[in-house]
Amino acid sequence: MYNNTFAFVVVIFILLVIVGCTCNF
């Protein structure tokens, strides 16, 4: 079974990367 906490952290990390890249432009 997948660990929901791990998946949640991964999603948050990806969102932060997307927001960070958007702010750079």
UniProtKB/TrEMBL annotation:
Species assigned in the record: Alteribacter keqinensis
Membrane-topology descriptor: Single-pass membrane protein
GO CC annotation: membrane
Annotated protein name in UniProt: YjcZ family sporulation protein
Coiled-coil residue windows: none
Pfam families per UniProt: YjcZ_2
Similarity comment: Belongs to the SscA family.
Keyword vocabulary terms for this entry: Membrane, Transmembrane, Transmembrane helix
